[in-house]
Structure formats: structure tokens, C-alpha cells
UniProtKB/TrEMBL annotation:
<dbReference type="GO" id="GO:0005524">
    <property type="term" value="F:ATP binding"/>
</dbReference>
<keyword id="KW-0061">Asparagine biosynthesis</keyword>
<protein>
    <recommendedName>
        <fullName>Aspartate--ammonia ligase</fullName>
        <ecNumber>6.3.1.1</ecNumber>
    </recommendedName>
</protein>
<feature type="domain" description="Aminoacyl-transfer RNA synthetases class-II family profile">
    <location>
        <begin position="19"/>
        <end position="324"/>
    </location>
</feature>
<dbReference type="GO" id="GO:0005829">
    <property type="term" value="C:cytosol"/>
</dbReference>
<keyword id="KW-0028">Amino-acid biosynthesis</keyword>
<keyword id="KW-0963">Cytoplasm</keyword>
<dbReference type="InterPro" id="IPR045864">
    <property type="entry name" value="aa-tRNA-synth_II/BPL/LPL"/>
</dbReference>
<dbReference type="InterPro" id="IPR004618">
    <property type="entry name" value="AsnA"/>
</dbReference>
<comment type="similarity">
    <text>Belongs to the class-II aminoacyl-tRNA synthetase family. AsnA subfamily.</text>
</comment>
<keyword id="KW-0547">Nucleotide-binding</keyword>
<dbReference type="GO" id="GO:0004071">
    <property type="term" value="F:aspartate-ammonia ligase activity"/>
</dbReference>
<comment type="pathway">
    <text>Amino-acid biosynthesis; L-asparagine biosynthesis; L-asparagine from L-aspartate (ammonia route): step 1/1.</text>
</comment>
<dbReference type="InterPro" id="IPR006195">
    <property type="entry name" value="aa-tRNA-synth_II"/>
</dbReference>
<dbReference type="GO" id="GO:0070981">
    <property type="term" value="P:L-asparagine biosynthetic process"/>
</dbReference>
<keyword id="KW-0067">ATP-binding</keyword>
<dbReference type="Pfam" id="PF03590">
    <property type="entry name" value="AsnA"/>
</dbReference>
Length: 339
């Protein structure tokens, strides 16, 4: 926590700012990537293979209903559901969908940027085989970053006290390059160092083992392609958009995204993770037999983007959630009011 923090917007102005950011960014994202809004589920049936297990790190909230035999789980993300929806809705190549994703991650360790309530824009775009490459991934990242920059400018015009801070361009760097540069640091420490240096960067290649024998971070085996060698000679067609948050003086991940697995990379990644039994699941069979279209997609944190662009110290200033009493008391000392 940084001493001397002063909220630039009061409660009512903050609520107007949240609405402005969400409306503006949705429009810019939809226009930039040619996406159409669709309705999405808040929960999924166990056993259909559509739930995101977050690399096995969290247990979903589950319940039973009278009219179905299987357990129902509140979504962790819509990574697999979106790919299925591309086929169901009949989206043409180079077009896609976006939706509001609301999740409960009950095992989350809460902090100023982590909440048990997760709200993000989930998006997915149909592609053809020739677009499964690093250049197309970078082009898509630039479009998303431009939507963020345009939104930041609109916020400044509405609230002149909120000065733009994001750099004009986003930098691209591979996780293997960060490890080579700062081998003595942990992956999260490398992200902090890179964020301070670049202001905004896209970290390519998260999930495959690096020279150290460990991945930069864990990624599920069945949505992003993190094993395919790209044109830079490294593994991975996925990554994270990370920025330097000047209010907190720390790095902030805004988006995780990537080109999705092909039949070949799905098999390789499941083998790498020792999860080949999943090949019998309906979603995975669809990837293998080609009924699931090739795609690129990701999630963009709604509250995190609002927090960043409104210069807020804590995510609880832009979303209503549950926090420890000790955290509420600590932040109240510097004038932070939680929603």
C-alpha cells in the first residue's frame, strides 16, 4: 500500500467512470476485432469438458438442480465454451464473439488486484490455419491495446483530472527472454522489472518449460497453444498483456489470451501434462475431429481495466465483493472506500 494516496474521483463520479469505461471499451474492442456480443452461461454441467480448471489450481463452486443428474459448476472462464459457440453460431473466419463473463473463484487469495469475484470480457475469433502464427497474435494484441488507449483518452476527456499514463505502443517479449535477462529473479519479479521498463508489454509463451526446466507460469493444456514453436524460435502462441500501474507502483496483468490449440498441439500438451484421458471428453474430441473451429481468444479484466484507468489503489473501489475486515480497515486509513 502506498502512503499519500488520494482518490481523484468520489463515489458517484467513480460509478460514472466505470460505466463509461465498460461501454467505451466494449465498442472499441468489438469494432477493432469484428466481434458480436452474445449471451453466455454463468454455470456449466460437470463432465462436458467445457469448464476451465485453471491448471488444476482452484476448485469450482458447485451445486445440484432437480432436473439434471450431474453437478453444476459456476464457470471459472469461458475459454472452451466460446470456441464451441463459434461453431454453433456459424461465425465466418476473421469474425467472432465477445461476452460478459462473471465467475466466483472461492479459493482465490485476495489482494488489491485479486477478488473472489472475477468479471471480464471474454472474446473468441474464428481463424483459418494460415493465421496460427506469431504475427497474427501480435496484430491482435495491438488492436486490443489500441482499444484500451482510446478508452483511456475518453476517460481523460470526461474527467480531466485523470491524466493518460499508458505508453503509446506495447512491447513484445518472450518469457524465455525475460528468464535469460533476469535468471536470478522469480517469474513475477521479472514481470515487475519488465513493466517498469516498458510501461506495457505482451509476455509471449506461458506454459511451456523454459531453460530452467520450469514454465513461466502454469497454463491449462486444452485451450491456449503454448507448445508450438513460433517464428522467433521460442515455444508459444499465447501470452499476457501486462502494464505498469502507476497508482500502485506495480505490474498489473490485464489480459490472458492466445491462439487456441490445434489437434496436434492439444495432443502434445495433454501428453506433456499427463492428461491424455481428456481426449475422450466431448470438447476435446471436437478439437481432434475438426468440429471445433480454429480460433484465437482471451479474457480482459473489466474491474482491473477500470481500476487502472480511474487511478484506483484497490479493485474493491470499482467492484462490489467480499473482503477481509483487516483489509477494509487497512485501506480505510488512506481514504479508500470499497463499493
Amino acid at each position: 500500500m502506498i502512503d499519500g494516496y488520494k482518490q481523484q474521483l468520489g463515489l458517484m463520479a467513480t460509478e460514472r467512470g466505470i460505466k463509461l469505461i465498460k461501454d467505451t471499451f466494449e465498442q472499441e474492442l468489438s469494432r477493432g476485432l469484428d466481434l458480436q456480443r452474445v449471451s453466455a452461461p454463468k454455470f456449466l454441467e460437470v463432465g462436458d469438458g467445457l469448464q476451465d480448471d485453471l491448471a488444476g489450481t482452484q476448485e469450482p463452486v458447485s451445486f445440484r438442480v432437480k432436473h439434471r443428474p450431474a453437478n453444476i459448476e459456476i464457470v471459472h472462464s469461458l475459454a472452451k465454451w466460446k470456441r464451441m459457440a463459434l461453431s454453433r453460431y456459424g461465425f465466418a473466419p476473421d469474425t467472432g464473439l465477445y461476452t460478459d463473463m462473471d465467475a466466483i473463484r472461492k479459493d482465490e487469495d485476495v489482494s488489491e488486484i485479486h477478488s473472489i469475484y472475477v468479471d471480464q470480457w471474454d472474446w473468441e475469433k474464428r481463424i483459418t490455419p494460415e493465421y496460427r502464427n506469431l504475427d497474427y497474435l501480435k496484430e491482435t494484441v495491438r488492436s486490443i491495446y489500441l482499444a484500451m488507449k482510446k478508452t483511456e483518452q475518453i476517460v481523460h476527456e470526461a474527467f480531466p483530472i485523470i491524466e493518460p499514463r499508458m505508453p503509446h505502443q506495447i512491447t513484445f517479449i518472450h518469457s524465455a527472454e525475460l528468464e535469460k535477462r533476469w535468471p536470478e529473479h522469480t517469474p513475477k519479479e521479472r514481470e515487475e522489472l519488465a513493466a517498469k521498463e516498458y510501461g506495457a508489454f505482451f509476455l509471449i509463451g506461458i506454459g511451456a518449460k523454459l531453460a530452467s526446466g520450469k514454465p513461466h507460469d502454469l497454463r491449462a493444456a486444452d485451450y491456449d497453444d503454448w507448445i508450438t514453436e513460433n517464428s522467433d524460435g521460442y515455444q508459444g502462441l499465447n501470452g499476457d498483456i501486462i502494464v505498469f500501474d502507476h497508482t500502485r507502483g506495480r505490474a498489473m496483468e490485464l489480459s490472458s489470451m492466445g491462439i487456441r490449440v490445434s489437434p496436434e498441439s492439444l495432443k502434445a500438451q495433454l501428453r506433456e501434462m499427463g492428461q491424455e484421458e481428456r481426449l475422450s471428453w466431448s470438447f476435446h474430441r471436437g478439437v481432434i475431429d475438426g468440429s471445433m473451429p480454429l480460433s484465437i481468444g482471451g479474457g480482459i479484466g473489466q474491474s482491473r481495466l477500470c481500476m487502472l484507468l480511474l487511478h484506483k489503489m484497490h479493485i474493491g473501489e470499482v467492484q462490489a465483493s467480499i473482503w477481509p475486515d483487516s483489509m477494509i480497515e487497512e485501506y480505510a486509513k488512506i481514504g479508500v472506500s470499497f463499493l
